[in-house]
Amino acid sequence: MNESPCPVQKKCGGCEFSGVPYEKQLEQKQKALQALLSGFGRVEPILGMEDPYYYRGKVHRALAYNKGRILSGCYEAGSHRVVDQPECLLEDKKCQEIAADVVKLISDFKLKIYDEDTGYGLMRHILVRRGFATDEIMLVLVLSERMFPGKNNFLKVLQEAHPEITTIVQNVNPGHTSMVLGPQNATLFGPGFIRDSIGNLTFRISPSSFFQVNPKETEVLYRTAMDFAELSGKETVLDAYCGTGTIGLSAAAHAKSVVGVELNPEAVADARKNAADNHITNIAFTAEDAGQYMERQAASRILYGRPEEERFGRNASGDLVSARKGPYDVLFMDPPRTGATEKFIRSAAKLAPRRIVYISCGPDTLARDLSLFTKLHYKVEKIQPVDMFPFTSHAEVVVRLSLV
């Protein structure tokens, strides 16, 4: 594979390691993670990919109009100027091909491109998602309004060119906002979702549902998380920030029961359908902010409102040890890049799960959160980085913490 830098790398800013051999990328990530996390314990060697190219199953194209032509690509780093992006070495080839043909169709049908400055125009974004295990493809057309001139002919031409598309959704985003998707979806073709698999489980993915963009390495990530949890089939498990239920459903086969908590109601709806589709009955989902859920759970249990010495006993050495069993044996937490809130962490410590498996996409905030956990009677036992995003500076990290 050609390791020359991407021609738009400086403007895009997405691939900090563009042109750097993959082995060198892994070395640099390992060094950076050790600098951040080695104070908590040994950082295991990062788990890389066999083939680090075209791994993203989700392609997003922002649209703009400049000097008589449509620009289609990502936003320039630190701005909302669209960088024309004919090809990306990280994104699935078929998704890129479909996105490019949609741009051509928009031009052929003379549909107006939305202008962020004036608020006029129709076409705002293109989103293409592919299930690597199923080969199902979803196209989302983001428009500024419900009216779609020439829609039937547009779809006919598109489907003739790409019969592999299994569903097409029109998303309406009328707001003057930097958010890609708006609140309304209308299914134009197919079921309105696609499916993909992780291990032996199948997951339903709707337009706004979170699903890892690198499905192949996600299997490595979740396998690591399950190994760290050491489930025996007797545990009560909490899956915080559960998204479409991928982690919780993976854990359900090895646990007594699982509760998943997620703020996005559409993702929760998908999670419940995923449970039904996979015939999993020992899991329940609730649509609620994970931090508020944890605070409410902690506050509702009187014993956890007692002084620390009553929640924890003393061993022969005089150290505090868990004296009471909380409602959850194992906590999985996969927060956004900003990490967990202090209230979430303190509430989690009050609930006193024996083990916490923290899956982080933000090592900086992970270090901050681990520092607080270690002050609240938790010990870091294992740290395993996984390279979910080759050619970028990002990496996921799985950490196991145990209650002292």
Describe the structure in your own words.
By secondary structure, this protein is an alpha/beta fold. The chain contains eleven helices and 18 strands. A seven-stranded mixed sheet has the order 3-2-1-4-5-6-7, with helices on one face. α3 runs antiparallel to α4 and α8 crosses α10. The chain is globular, with a radius of gyration of 23 Å. The termini are far apart.
In short:
The chain is 29% helix and 26% strand. The chain contains 11 helices and 18 strands. The strands form 4 sheets. A 7-stranded mixed sheet has the order 3-2-1-4-5-6-7, with helices on one face. It has a 7-stranded mixed sheet with strand order 12-11-10-15-16-18-17, with helices on both faces. Strands 8-9 form a two-stranded antiparallel sheet.
Radius of gyration: 23 Å
User: Kindly state the mean pLDDT as a whole number?
Assistant: 90
Overall form: globular
Q: Which structural class should the secondary elements be placed in?
A: alpha/beta
Q: List the helices and strands in order.
A: HHEEEHEEHEEEEHEHEHEHHEEEHEHEE
Count every helix, treating DSSP H or I runs of 4 or more residues as helices. Answer: 11
The portion of residues assigned to helices is 25-40%
Q: In this structure, how is the largest beta sheet organized?
A: 7 strands, mixed
Strand adjacency order, main sheet? 3-2-1-4-5-6-7
